[in-house]
Inverse folding.
C-alpha cells in the first residue's frame, strides 16, 4: 500500500535520513521507532508532503506522491497526525471533525449559494462527524471548543480528525506522548480498532509497551538509517538495536 | 444554532421592515445620504470579514479593490455610457481579477509579510490613479458618473438620481451581497477558511488546499469590494484617488473588529453604527472626533470580541441571572 524507497534528506550537510526503505500494508500496524533525532518525524513529513526529499520515492497505491501538496496526499487517503498537539483551537469539536469529513470533496464556490447543496453536505458531514466522535469516545465534548479540551482529549481529537478524512493509511506521530498509562491503554484499543476496520497504520512511538503490544512490524531508525526491521520480538533481540538504545530505554526490557 | 435563528427571526423581519420604510421615517435627504453610505460600507465590511474574520488573512489594502471597482465603473460609464446594472458586475470582476493576480504574489507569504504587501498594494493603486492622468485625470478626479435610469416604455420609468430610489437600489444590492457572503461563510468553503485561520498546517493535513482557499477568500472579498465601488461611484457621481487612502481601510477594519469579526452580522452592525455615529456626534461640535475616538477606545477595552461578543456576553449573564433568580 505504501512503499518508501531510498528516501534521503539532508539539512545543510547533516543527513536526517539516509536511503530509508520500507513498506506499510493495510490491516497492519507498522511502527517506526528509534532514539530522538533518528529522523522519524522527518520521514513522516516526507511521506505526507510537508518536506521534499533529496532522493527517493514514496509510492502510495501505485502513485508517486513526491511533489504533491499535503492536502492532495490526504485526499488520496494517506492522513497523518502531528507530534506536537495541533487542533483548531477556536472551533467547536464537532465543527473541527466536520471539516475533516470534507477531505477530498470539491466545492465550487457558486454551488454554496444554492441552499440544497449546503443542507445535504451539512447533513452528511454532521452524521459522519457524530459517528466518529462516538467511536473515539468524544461525543460528550462535541459542543466544546477544541481549546477547552484536556491534553489527553486533544490527542484523541487529533486522531478523530484524521479518521474523519477517511484514510486508508493513517500515520500517527507519537500519539501516546504525554498520556497517562490508562489513557495510553485506551489509545492502544482505539488503534487496534482502527486496524480491525481495515485501515493501515504507521506509528511513531516512544512508549515501547504500546509498540510491542500492538505492532505487526517494527522499523528501527538510528541516525537517519534503518538498522533493523521485523516483527516486534525479533527486533527487540537485534544486537544493533540494543546497542543503539544502550543508555536509553531498551526494547528488550519493555 | 437553531434556537438563535428562531430568536433572531422577528428581529430580522423587524429590521427589514424598518429598512423598507426608512425613506418615510427620515425625511431629510441628508439622512438618506448617510443611510446609502452605510449600505456601501456594509458590503465593504462583510466582504472584508470573509478575508480577515474567516480566513484569518489581515489585509490592509481592502479599499484598493473598492477604489479599483469605482474607477472601472466610472471609466466605463464616462467613455461608453455603461449603466450601473452592468458596471456592478464588471467592477466586481475587475477587482477579483486584480486580487487573483496579486494573490499569486502576496499569498505566497503569510503573517506580517502579507499585511505589509497589501498595504503597499493600496498605495501603488493610489499612485496609479494619481499619475495616470490621461485616463484618471489624477487628483482632479472623475466627475459626472450618473445613476442609472430604469425605463420600460409604458410600464415603469425610474430615475435613480432621485435619492429614495437609489436608497432602495442600494438596499437591494446590499442585502443580496450580504446574503451571498453569508452563504459562503456558512458553507463548506467558509469552514475551510476557518480551518486556514485556526491552523494552516493542520488544515493542509486534513485535506484543505490552504493556498486555494486563501485565494478564494481573497478573490471573493475583492469581488464584493469592487462591486461596492461601482455602487458608490454611480451614487456619489465623483471619484478621486482619495478612495485609495489607508483611512478607508482603517474604517472598514474598525467596523469588522468592533462589530465582531468572523460573524458577518457583527460587521453589518459595525458598518451601520460607525457610519451613523460620527454624524450623530456632530451635536458635540468641536469634540466630535475626540468623542468618537473615546467611544472606540472604550469599545476596544470592554468589548474585545466586538459588539456581537458583548451582546452575547450580556445575554448569557442575563440568562444566568434568571436561573439564579429562579433557584
Amino acid at each position: 500500500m505504501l512503499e518508501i524507497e531510498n528516501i534521503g534528506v539532508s539539512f545543510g550537510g547533516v543527513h536526517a535520513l539516509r536511503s530509508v526503505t520500507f513498506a506499510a500494508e493495510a490491516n497492519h500496524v507498522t511502527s517506526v521507532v528509534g532514539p530522538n533525532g533518528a529522523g522519524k518525524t522527518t520521514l513522516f513529513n516526507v511521506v505526507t508532503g510537508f518536506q521534499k526529499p533529496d532522493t527517493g520515492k514514496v509510492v502510495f497505491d501505485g502513485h508517486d506522491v513526491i511533489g504533491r501538496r499535503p492536502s492532495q496526499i490526504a485526499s488520496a487517503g494517506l492522513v497523518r497526525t502531528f507530534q506536537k498537539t495541533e487542533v483548531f483551537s477556536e472551533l467547536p469539536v464537532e465543527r473541527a471533525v466536520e471539516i475533516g469529513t470534507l477531505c477530498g470533496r470539491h466545492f465550487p464556490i457558486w454551488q454554496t449559494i444554492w441552499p440544497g447543496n449546503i443542507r445535504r453536505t451539512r447533513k452528511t458531514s454532521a452524521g459522519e462527524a457524530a459517528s466518529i466522535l462516538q467511536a473515539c469516545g468524544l461525543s460528550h465534548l462535541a459542543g466544546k471548543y477544541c481549546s477547552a479540551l484536556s491534553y489527553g482529549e486533544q490527542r484523541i481529537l487529533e486522531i478523530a480528525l484524521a479518521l474523519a478524512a477517511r484514510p486508508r493509511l493513517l500515520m500517527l506521530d507519537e500519539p501516546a506522548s504525554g498520556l497517562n498509562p490508562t489513557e495510553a491503554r485506551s489509545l492502544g484499543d482505539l488503534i487496534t480498532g482502527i486496524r480491525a476496520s481495515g485501515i493501515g497504520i504507521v506509528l511513531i512511538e516512544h512508549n515501547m509497551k504500546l509498540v510491542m503490544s500492538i505492532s505487526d512490524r517494527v522499523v528501527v531508525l538510528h541516525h537517519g538509517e534503518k538498522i533493523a526491521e521485523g516483527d516486534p520480538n525479533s527486533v527487540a533481540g537485534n544486537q544493533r538495536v540494543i546497542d543503539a538504545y544502550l543508555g536509553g530505554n531498551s526494547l528488550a526490557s519493555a | 444554532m437553531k434556537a438563535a435563528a428562531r430568536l433572531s427571526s422577528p428581529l430580522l423581519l423587524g429590521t427589514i421592515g424598518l429598512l423598507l420604510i426608512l425613506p418615510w421615517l427620515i425625511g431629510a435627504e441628508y439622512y438618506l445620504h448617510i443611510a446609502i453610505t452605510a449600505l456601501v460600507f456594509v458590503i465593504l465590511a462583510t466582504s472584508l470579514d470573509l478575508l480577515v474574520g474567516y480566513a484569518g488573512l489581515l489585509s490592509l489594502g481592502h479599499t484598493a479593490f473598492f477604489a479599483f471597482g469605482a474607477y472601472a465603473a466610472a471609466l466605463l460609464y464616462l467613455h461608453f455610457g455603461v449603466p450601473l446594472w452592468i458596471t456592478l458586475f464588471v467592477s466586481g470582476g475587475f477587482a477579483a481579477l486584480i486580487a487573483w493576480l496579486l494573490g499569486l504574489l502576496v499569498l505566497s507569504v503569510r503573517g506580517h509579510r502579507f499585511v505589509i504587501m497589501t498595504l503597499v498594494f493600496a498605495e501603488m493603486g493610489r499612485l496609479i490613479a494619481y499619475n495616470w492622468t490621461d485616463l484618471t485625470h489624477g487628483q482632479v478626479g472623475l466627475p459626472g458618473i450618473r445613476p442609472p435610469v430604469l425605463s420600460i416604455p409604458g410600464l415603469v420609468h425610474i430615475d435613480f438620481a432621485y435619492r429614495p430610489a437609489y436608497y432602495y437600489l442600494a438596499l437591494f444590492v446590499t442585502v443580496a451581497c450580504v446574503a451571498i457572503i453569508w452563504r459562503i461563510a456558512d458553507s463548506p468553503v467558509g469552514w475551510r477558511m476557518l480551518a486556514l485561520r485556526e491552523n494552516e498546517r493542520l488544515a493542509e493535513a486534513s485535506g484543505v488546499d490552504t493556498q486555494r482557499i486563501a485565494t478564494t477568500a481573497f478573490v471573493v472579498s475583492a469581488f464584493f469590494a469592487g462591486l461596492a465601488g461601482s455602487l458608490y461611484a454611480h451614487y456619489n457621481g465623483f471619484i478621486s484617488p482619495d478612495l485609495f487612502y489607508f483611512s478607508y481601510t482603517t474604517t472598514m477594519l474598525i467596523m469588522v473588529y468592533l462589530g465582531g469579526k468572523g460573524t458577518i452580522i457583527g460587521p453589518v452592525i459595525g458598518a451601520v453604527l460607525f457610519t451613523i455615529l460620527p454624524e450623530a456626534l456632530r451635536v458635540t461640535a468641536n469634540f466630535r472626533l475626540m468623542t468618537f475616538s473615546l467611544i472606540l477606545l472604550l469599545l476596544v477595552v470592554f468589548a474585545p470580541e466586538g459588539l456581537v461578543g458583548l451582546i452575547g456576553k450580556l445575554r448569557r449573564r442575563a440568562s444566568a441571572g434568571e436561573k439564579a433568580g429562579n433557584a
In short: The beta strands of chain B are 142-143, 149-152, 156-159, 238-239. The first strand of chain B starts at residue 142 and ends at 143. Residues 29-286 of chain B form a domain with the ABC transporter involved in vitamin B12 uptake, BtuC fold (CATH 1.10.3470). Confidence is low (pLDDT under 50) at residues 1-6 of chain B.
